[in-house]
Design a protein that fits this description.
It is built from seven helices and no strands. It has 161 residues and is mostly helical.
């Protein structure tokens, strides 16, 4: 059995009851998420083990503006939720691209050096891992900038404006 499984389950049950109440109760929540009243009633019942499916969570969270369930699920997985604003500008797209390319080059260089003698030492493994972490961060930043470009309807990358 997974440690703290019951604690997580009860936390999720409490959060979904709060979400249903915030939506205006069982009947209102049922109409918002397009599920039957008896199904939503089981979600709200602390004696029932039934949890909401993701489509219902998303619908109710959007309706209420509360994201308690998503945050509880994220925290149960040992993560946290952070609001990220996607920003796109010509310079940041080119910078993000360049940083991703340089980071990938660093990974390739570290790998080539480490593998040259046919052995991979713990120190070489750690060095490659650090380069991969930088690549991962560069790729995440690049994806944020690209999301901003999509949201802005695209960008003209060469020639300004």
């Amino acid at each position: 059995m997974v440690p703290n499984a019951n604690a997580r389950h009860f936390l999720l049950k409490a959060k979904q009851r709060d979400l249903i109440a915030a939506a205006g109760g069982i009947e209102r929540a049922a109409s918002v998420c397009s599920y039957g009243k008896s199904t939503v009633g089981r979600w709200a019942n602390s004696d029932s083990s039934e949890l909401m499916p993701l489509d219902a969570i998303f619908a109710l969270e959007e309706e209420t503006g509360r994201f308690d369930m998503s945050e509880a699920i994220t925290q149960a997985r040992g993560r946290s939720v952070a609001e990220v604003e996607a920003v796109a500008a010509n310079g940041s797209v080119m910078t993000a691209h360049a940083e991703a390319v340089v980071s990938m080059g660093d990974v390739m260089t570290e790998g080539a050096i480490a593998f040259a003698d046919g052995k991979l030492t713990p120190a070489e493994s750690a060095q490659i891992d650090r380069a991969l972490a930088k690549l991962q961060n560069a790729a995440a930043e690049y994806r944020k900038v690209l999301a901003g470009a999509r949201a802005a309807g695209g960008l003209k990358v060469v020639g300004g404006e």
